[in-house]
Automatic annotation (TrEMBL):
Superkingdom in the source lineage: Eukaryota
Feature: compositional bias, Acidic residues: 26-36
Organism: Tanacetum cinerariifolium
Protein name: Uncharacterized protein
Region annotation (Disordered) ranges: 1-36
Length: 83
């Protein structure tokens, strides 16, 4: 009979596949550190994506402004030619 409070992961066929993802010596503290690292990386990625999104939006706005300026200049030239 196996004691209830042991760390035996089992090797029998009935245990096959039940230990996936559990590494030997993997403890709660390591899992908490991994979770914290994941959260930190997730936040860093969110910030990087927001920065890039802002840059792309600003670039698109500059291009739109330049286009509208060109259209306005061309319209003014056409109006002057009509007068």
């Amino acid at each position: 009979q196996t004691p209830k409070n042991n760390d035996d992961e089992g090797n029998g066929e009935e245990d096959f596949g039940l230990n996936v993802g559990r590494e030997e010596g993997h403890n709660e503290e390591e899992e908490e550190e991994e979770d914290e690292l994941y959260k930190d990386m997730n936040e860093a990625v969110k910030v990087a994506v927001q920065i890039q999104s802002d840059r792309l939006r600003d670039e698109a706005q500059r291009e739109n402004d330049e286009f509208l300026k060109t259209v306005d200049e061309n319209m003014q030239k056409i109006i002057k030619e009509q007068v």
